[in-house]
Amino acid sequence: MGDKLPKSDYNICEETGVKTDNHHLYKWGIVVGIHKDLQILQRVAISHSSLVGCVITIDFVLGTSSGHGFIHHFVGVYALWNPGSADNDFWMQVTLICQQSPYSWTLAGDVNATVSTIERPSGGQDMRRQYLQFLHQLDGRDLWTLNPDQTCDHDWMCHARGSMAGGNIIDQIVLFNKGFDDAEIQVADKSSDYIPMTDHQLL
Fold first, then answer.
1. What percent of the chain is modeled with pLDDT above 70?
2. What is the pLDDT of residue 202?
3. Distance CA 153, CA 104 (A)
4. 36-193 topology per CATH
5. Which of 86, 99, 141, 186 qualifies as a FRET site for 130, CA 20 to 30 Å off?
6. What is each CA distance from 137 to 10, 62, 69, 77, 129, in whole angstroms?
7. CA-to-CA distance for 90 and 31, rounded, in angstroms?
8. What values do phi and psi take at 128, rounded to 5?
């Protein structure tokens, strides 16, 4: 899917999906675009098996108004829909990535969990519990909580097939609470922001 994104403006990093049995031919997979105004220092290798095909980590430089810059750690995720299985430690491994980062960090992507009581329930409670535990352990700030006027009733990010009303806000951006003074998230409103072969839009 990386080839379908605007490469003229972005450096594209892609983690292809993992081949699975008894499901789609490939599942998960994630693409991250870093605007070319930002200097990428490195793409950090992912070695743990539970993160393959689901996580991309990148260190890049954020400029400041004084002409300086600082290194920022970005984690792109496509979270598993069943992280509660006994042999899966997806959110524990993502927590370690953020905890061990020597820099401020941001996590963004599909966390596959509903976190608001007004959202349509999605899957089991394990997803919600593990994601909320991740936020608590890392003092993470979910940006949807800063936008009280935006709800799944009108600004859904994923909805049932054939339905245009309500849904789940499962695409999230999380900031390390000590990393930024201000930030925002909003739903893309252009049809060109829709990525083919997925039910998500660019954030």
1. 66
2. 44
3. 33
4. Deoxyribonuclease I; Chain A (3.60.10)
5. 186
6. 32, 25, 28, 18, 12
7. 18
8. -60, -45
Number of H helices, E strands in the chain: 2, 10
Q: pLDDT (tens digit, 9 = 90+) per residue, 73-123?
A: 999 998 876 655 545 688 999 999 999 999 999 999 888 877 766 666 555
Measure the CA–CA gap between 155 and 146, rounded to whole angstroms.
14
Looking at the DSSP bridge assignments, the partners of residue 13 are: 32
Q: Which residues contact 2 (CB under 8 A, 6 or more apart)?
A: 12, 13, 14, 31
Q: And the tokens for 112?
A: 């596959």
| Residue 125 C-alpha from the chain's centroid | 19
What sign has the CA pseudo-torsion 40, 142, 83, 105? positive
Domains of the chain, by residue range, sit at: 36-193
State the DSSP code for 147: -
Q: Do the Cβ atoms of 58 and 72 come closer than 8 Å?
A: no
**Half-sphere exposure (Cβ direction) of 117: Cα atoms closer than 13 Å:** 0
187: tokens are: 């739903």
Q: Which DSSP string corresponds to 76-95?
A: EEE--S-TTSTT--HHHHHH
Give the residue from 164, 168, 155 showing the smallest Cα distance to 127.
168
Other C-beta atoms within 10 Å of 90: how many?
A: 23
Give the length of the chain: 203
